[in-house]
Specification:
The protein is of the alpha/beta class. Helix content is 37%, strand content 21%. The longest helix has 17 residues, at 164-180. Bound molecules: S-adenosylmethionine (SAM).
Length: 300
């Protein structure tokens, strides 16, 4: 098993972004992701921006929540992901209510002060300055609109039937590598971001910040999707040669997940646990157009 390649890189150079990987990841956590959208209590008829929409995996969930009078603008920097998202929507009832556009999170392709909610899943881990980006997104919200950021936090990952020391060494080596690899020209990545999000939203100027955590627990026997997801994650933890991990740990780690005979995934005692976070905040600042209107009213 090759462990020294970057796995699942898309054409924008971002790890864990390949479309097949994202689809499997989405399917493997479908019940929790459906619950995340239900918990947002989106209002029918809302204008939703799906910021960093990737291949459009959340579109159907968002569309169901906002109904036929709602609108979704999917935004991403990856043209390949946007083309896939567009294809996925083909023939669906919500197609006339959805547009996919190439743009960054900081410069959304909508008028300021128009979105009821900006939803962004699994993107904050790639933001080198999340506070600045979240603050920049605020101006696209109506006053009282919401930013909803969903992301992972690998600090919450545990495999119950595996050597705890080995897990700790692998996780620590990857966490340190994420900090050090920036100097080697790799793109920014923070896979431990989930539990930091509430603080980032507050610092960016959002009010009424709420954090919801979603434990994702899976036991033996695993679905094919979840098995593929875990094997991909296991490889990802030690990709780029795992320079901060001992070679014995590297071999043992890969054997645990990929060995055809001794994989921990095939043991009846297997349990995996991971928590994902959805953090929402309300933007109460007036968007630029409304500020001008307000000023005119006050000082005319
Ligand atoms: C891990 S994928 C998540 C895709 C989708 N939201 C999901 O959960 O399936 C991250 C996506 O964010 C996009 N992305 C990363 N940084 C971005 C930025 N600054 N502006 C817009 N899109 C960005 C990537 O191109 C990629 O499609």
């Amino acid at each position: 098993m090759a462990a020294n390649n970057i796995v699942y890189v898309n054409e924008c150079g971002l790890p864990l972004n390949a479309i097949e990987w994202l689809e499997t990841h989405h399917l493997s956590k479908a019940p929790e992701r459906e619950q995340m959208i239900r918990d947002l209590h989106l209002k029918p008829g809302s204008l939703v921006v799906d910021a960093g929409c990737g291949p459009g995996l959340w579109t159907s969930l968002l569309a169901r929540a906002i109904g036929p009078r709602g609108r979704i603008i999917g935004v991403d920097i990856s043209p390949e992901a946007l083309v896939t998202a567009q294809r996925r929507s083909a023939g669906k009832w919500y197609l006339p209510r959805v547009q996919y556009k190439c743009a960054t999170l900081e410069q959304l392709p909508i008028e300021p002060g128009t979105a009821n909610i900006i939803f962004s899943a699994n993107v904050s881990q790639y933001l080198p300055n999340p506070v600045d980006t979240f603050a920049a997104m605020g101006r696209y919200l109506v006053a009282g609109g919401r930013l909803a950021i969903k992301d992972i936090d690998f600090g919450t990952m545990r495999f119950h039937n595996m050597d705890a020391g080995l897990q700790a060494r692998v996780f620590q080596a990857r966490e340190r590598l994420e900090q050090e690899r920036l100097n080697q020209g790799y793109a920014f990545e923070d896979s431990w971001v989930g539990s930091q999000l509430a603080g980032y939203l507050r610092e960016a100027g959002y009010e009424e910040v709420e954090e919801k955590s979603y434990p994702i627990v899976r036991r033996y026997p695993l679905s094919q999707d979840f098995r593929f997801y875990l094997q991909g994650i296991a490889e990802w933890f030690v990709c780029e040669g795992a320079p901060l991990l001992g070679s014995e740990d590297l071999t043992n780690w890969l054997r645990c997940f990929l060995d055809e005979v001794h994989s921990v995934l095939d043991q009846e005692t297997f349990v995996s646990e991971e928590t994902e976070y959805v953090v929402t905040g309300v933007w109460n600042k007036y968007p630029p157009a409304q500020v001008r209107y307000f000023d005119m009213q006050t000082y005319a």
